[in-house]
Amino acid sequence: MSNKLLTSLILSGSLLLGASPVLADDCSSRGVLDEKFCDENNDLVADTPKDPSEWRDPSTLVFTYTPVEDPAVYKDAFHDFQEYLSEVTGKKVIYYTVHSNAAEVEAIRSGRLHIAGFSTGPTGYAVNLGGYVPIAVKGTADGFQGYNLITITRADSDIHTMEDLKGKVVAHTSASSNSGNLAPRALFPYVGVTPDKDYQVKYSGKHDQSIMGVLAGDYDAAPVASDVFHRMVDGGRIKEDDFRVIYTSAKFPTSAFGYAHNLHPDLVAKIKQAFDTFRFSESMQETFGGADRFYPVTYKEDWKVIRDIAHASGTAYTKTGLKQLAEADAAKAAKAAAKKQAMQSSN
C-alpha cells in the first residue's frame, strides 16, 4: 500500500474502520474481538467460521513478516521456510512486503494476507481487529525466544541512570511497539521516570532508527528491543562499545507467527504442521539469534504480559487505537519521504 493511498484511506475513514463488517450473527460470545469475529471457546482469538462456505482455501498463500528494519533482509531470511510451507501445503507461497504495522493489520483483515509474523505489540491489533491466530514464536527445543526492553544512550553521554533521562529527548519507535513504546510507558514510572512528563518523546519509526539516532546524537537515549540491538552489533552496523545500557526489563516473547482465522481447517492443519516440523538453516539461526525452530505458543497465555502492558499504558486494541496507529504510520512515512527528498536536493 502506498503512503499516499494509506493517507487517503485514513482521511476517508475507510481503513479497516469505515467498511461495514460481516457480522458473526449467531455468535454467543466474541469477547473483545471486533464484531466480524466470534470467540465462543474464550481463547481470545477468532474462531473458525461455523459456515463451511466461509472457509478459504486459496491456491496461493501470501506470507509476510513484520516491517522491522530492512524488509528485504527478512524476505530472504524466510525463503527456505516459504519453500517448506509450499511443500507441506501443496500450494504456491509468495512474500508480500508491508511497510507499516497498520498496513499489515489491514492486509490480514481484508483477506490479502494468509500467514504472517507480527511484532509483539501489534499482534493484539491483528488478533482483535484482523482475525489473526498466533501459534508460534521463534525459539529452540528448550523454549521460546524472547527479548528485553533495554534503554540505550551513548557511551560518552552523562546519562548513567534512568532518572538522568529527566529533561532529555528520548526516542520511542512507534505507538504500537511493545518494547519501543508501550512497555516503557508502563514500566518506566516504576523506576522513577514517566515518558512525556519527565522527558520529551520523539517517535523514530523503527528500532534501528532509534539506535542510529542515539549514535548520531539526534536523541539522548532510546528504549529498544534487545534482539534488534544485538543483531545490529552482530551485523557490524554498530559497535556495542559505543553505547551504554542503563535499563534491562524482564523477558518478552518475540514476534508472533500465525494464520488468518477463516482458512480451511484442513489447510490450517498443514500450516501448523509446517511450523511444527520446520528447522532453521544455519543462516536463519544466525539471523535470528540462535533460534532453530518455531516454538508453539498461545495468545491467551503467552501474550498476557503484553496485554497487561498495553492495558497499563492506556492502549486498547480497538478500531480507534488502530486508526491512531495508521495516522502515526502515515505521518512517519511523510516525514521520512521529506527527509529523503531534502537529502537528494542537497546532493
UniProtKB/TrEMBL annotation:
Would you tell me the protein name for this molecule? Phosphate/phosphite/phosphonate ABC transporter substrate-binding protein
Signal sequence interval, chain numbering = 1-24
Q: Does the keyword Signal apply?
A: yes
Q: Does the record bear Hydrolase in its keywords?
A: no
Gene Ontology biological-process annotations: transmembrane transport
InterPro entries for this protein: PhnD
Gene Ontology annotations for the cellular component aspect, listed alphabetically: ATP-binding cassette (ABC) transporter complex
- This protein's UniProt keywords: Signal
Tell me the domain of life. Bacteria
UniProt cross-references to Gene3D superfamilies, sorted A to Z? Periplasmic binding protein-like II (3.40.190.10)
Q: Which family does it belong to?
A: Belongs to the phosphate/phosphite/phosphonate binding protein family.
